[in-house]
Amino acid sequence: MDAVNRNWQVLRALVLARPFVLVCLALFYVVAGFLLLMLDADKKVSVILIMCAIPACGVFAIATQRVIQYTDAGSSLGLPRQRESMRVGQIWLLCVFVGIPAGIAVALGGNLSYTILLLVPAASGVLLAIYARWVFFVWITFAVTTRGTYSFGASMPGLGNPWIRAILVCLSVAVLYWWLGLANRIARRSAPTLLIADARHESTTASIGQALGADPKQYELYEKAYDRGITAIVGGITDRGITKRALQVGLAMPGRTNWRFVGVMIAISLVALLFFHLKNPNPAQPTAYLGFTLLTAVWLFGQLNVVTQAWKARANEEALLVLTPRWPAQDKLKSLFLQIILERQGGTWTAWILVSLFATVLGWAGVEEIFISVVIMIAASSCATGALMLALSRKVFKEVSLLTIVALLCGAVGTGVFLVGDDAIAHGQLFGLSLILAPIAVGALSFSFRPLQFPARTINKQ
Questions:
Q1: What is the secondary structure of 209-254 as a DSSP string?
Q2: Contact call for residues 42 and 152 (beta carbons, < 8 A)
């Protein structure tokens, strides 16, 4: 009975810890159930496989991130039998989110060679959690280029080839087998940090790396990188205060814009736009450029969300920093945060502007689409910046804030009203522009006149 309770606790920690995310993923199963009652028998199997693939990918991505987090913490604390419990929880995930839908599909007469493809989204979720940056773009590209229908043969002609299906299944099995051993590898990686040889702990860098169980050369490179980071922090701290770079390094915030990554994303976006333009050259229809703009807006939200998460996660360190004699005044610290907010948006805006210029010159996007995209980007920047400023100037930080929700709704509604124009609503464009700029205006006023919330203070709900 204790083993059952322990395995249930592990499964609950891996999947059920976030009810909102779980409910969103469960909606796919609810929709699949309603479609099964309405569709013909020949389409039911395809509906099960397609509607169960998306939540399977999300669940395995969430579970992988938590396996890494909990195993690392458990290894540091020396918890007994944690790796075995994690493996049992992972096997339960495979049975519930892959095995049960596959069994239902086979019971309805589905082809086993297609049904077993449910392993592919599960493996994709694992890769998404570890290599999120690249898998995200591959997943979006795949989802856009394969127009979903009720038939695998129509939406993904390549899956009609049994060799392609076999390769996908074999790769997925390999990834999932590697995933089942993830807890053991993390535990072994964390274990050497607890055993440091006493005889050589003050010797050379190579001997320290050997004592820690690491490669001496790799550890020496790590030490040099660590020294450069510390030098950046110390060099940015003077009698006049600290620099933006020192604050970013000290709070583990992202530093300078990765222009190489921005260039790669620009190249990928241009190739995708070229592909869609060749596939649909009719300018009267919406092109992929609007889709690129929406993805860029999401990217912009993500850039500022990273700042929010770093500021929130380093509350204990921030409480110590404010006690140091060289810590700057509120006005100086606010200016540093403003610089960080502007810097984090620089790469996103640069990528969007360059791709927009190419799309305009080459005729891949019309004037109306460019206008709509400008409004979307301004609204996204206003909402993201305003929400972050409101969070920084509040008394306490809340994960779900009514002000943040209102700011996002103002941007979304304002964009729609502005684009509809004066034809449908009296003074519609003026009203829409006011709603778009309201989040950043209110956020700027609150950020200017209210004290900065530093250190971050969160509400702990037991």
A1: HHHTTS-HHHHHHHHHHHHHHHHHHHHTEETTEE-HHHHHHHTT--
A2: no
DSSP state of 458: B
How far apart (Å, rounded) are the C-alpha atoms in residues 300 and 296? 6
Q: Specify the 3-state DSSP secondary structure of 431.
A: helix
Paired tokens of 454: 């530093």
Q: DSSP per residue over 293-337, as a string?
A: HHHHHHHHHHHHHHHHHHHHHTHHHHHHHTTSTTPPPHHHHHHHH
Q: Which helix (H) or strand (E) holds 168?
A: helix 162-180
Cβ neighbours of 224 (radius 10 Å): 11
Give the pLDDT of residue 382: 93
Query: At 13, is the secondary structure helix, strand, or coil?
Result: helix
Report how far residue 81's alpha carbon sits from residue 386's, in angstroms, rounded to the nearest whole number. Answer: 47
C-alpha span between 401 and 415 (Å, rounded): 22
Tell me the β-bridge partners of 397. 458
Contacts of 59 (CB under 8 A, 6+ apart): 15, 25, 93, 97, 125
Q: What are residue 238's phi and psi, to 5 degrees? A: -130, 180
Under 8 Å between Cβ of 452 and 330? yes
Tokens linked to 182: 């993830």
Is residue 364 a contact partner of residue 273, using CB atoms and an 8 Å limit? yes
Please report the pLDDT score of residue 381 as a whole number. Answer: 94
pTM: 0.59
107: closest CA among 48, 189, 37, 56?
Answer: 48
Over the chain (462 residues), the average pLDDT of each successive run of 10 is: 52 55 68 72 74 81 79 70 79 85 82 82 82 54 45 48 82 89 77 46 55 65 72 61 76 81 88 79 65 88 86 83 78 89 92 92 85 92 92 82 83 86 73 91 91 79 44
Compute the Cα dihedral for 176, 182, 183, 185 and give only its sign.
positive
Integer distance in angstroms from the first to the last C-alpha of the chain?
27
DSSP letter for 95, please: I
CB 253 within 8 A of CB 306: yes
Tokens read off for 203: 């010797």
CA distances to 8, 33, 51, 226, 258 from 57, rounded to whole Å, are 21, 19, 11, 36, 28
| Six-digit token string for 278 | 């060749």
In the numeric block, which tokens belong to residue 233?
């922090």
Q: What are the tokens at 275?
A: 């592909």
Please give the Cα distance from 6 to 453 (Å, whole number): 40
Task: Give the contacts of 431 (CB within 8 A, at least 6 positions apart).
Answer: 414, 417, 425
Give the pair of three-digit tokens for residue 262: 């921005």
User: What percentage of the chain's residues is helix, strand, coil (to nearest 5)?
Assistant: 75, 0, 20
